[in-house]
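Bench notes, afternoon.
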Amino acid sequence: MNYEKDILDKLIDVYERRGYFKKQTSEMKSVSLNISKEYSEYFDKYDHSTYEKINISIDNLIRKTFVSSKKNTVGEYEKIKLELSSVPEIYLYLRRKPLADKATDLINVLSEFENSEHNLICNVVSDFYKKVKDGKKILYSIEYSEIRLRRVLEVLTAILNLKSETYIRNFSDAVFKDSKTFVKEYRSSIQSILFDYSDTSVEKERILEVYNLYDNPTYVMLKGNAVVSYHETHIALSEISGGIALPESALDDIRNIEVLSDSVITVENLTTYHDCSDKEGFYIYLGGFHNHSKQILLKKIYDSNPELNYFHKGDIDVFGFAILESLIERTGIPFIPMEMDLETLGRYYQAGLYKPLTNEDKKAMESPRLSKYAEIFEFMKQNNCKVEQESIKAIEIMDII
């Protein structure tokens, strides 16, 4: 290890963390390192070589007037103090860019995106700009990296420009010329930003679906008493046990869906979809978040069958209600929640079929768009519970066994 460089880097880290780069020298307090905390090997009586290396390194730094320190009675250094007047020279010695210069670089990058056509980007840029101006590092694994900041904003812009279902590896190949870079280096940051800045309440793990980005192809699954018509083909779902699965690419070519039962029911969970009886209504499993193509499909169904009852069957948690509200808002269809009421929640809670709330759940409950579910949310918060739709079948099984 190059102890000279490591000691200086640690001292400059403290200097920057305290925001001293924005202050006059007279306003600064001392910056120092405790040797015992940073270099325990220095006190290893069986490792005299390392002891000598650290001593020589500190001696050299004192000679350069970068630090000051004194040995104790046994010849050991205990604390190293940064010479604040030497900071500019230390940056040159380390070939390290001063934080003030890095902040200027970040502001220059942010200025390139401040007039984005996407409100989400504008809001991100505004918040990041304020952090930089306040001398704080940007979150989302960006910190003071000009290169990463630019890449993150470029990736966000590319995602927001997607208009149809896109697979993550293809997206990564298009943006990075490598099919794995997005997942390895950017997915976590991008998901967190979209989750924090999106006006759609959905789990962080599914937020990319809202913007047409998927790990794998998604399917819409249909079953019940209905007829799906293409140009020359008519599929009677009632004749197919368990229904059919249609890929995203097959949705636009559907000419009409004639529903022969009195109810259309969208289902959030695949297991619940399979548990539902074909004879009770016309069921739709959207296979991921309802993007533009799936919304168009739902509108086609509603336009041809406006007199029917439209239900949504989802998890009894904040994101289940968020999906329901998004369905209503984006399709204009008056969906009614099915088995997502306070009584059903209480039943599952009493049976012990629930999960504890997460911080994401509690944060999402504050959304004004979900205020109509305040009574249910209050029960959830008081009892620290949320319920998945699979619990319906679980209760039936519990009654049997």
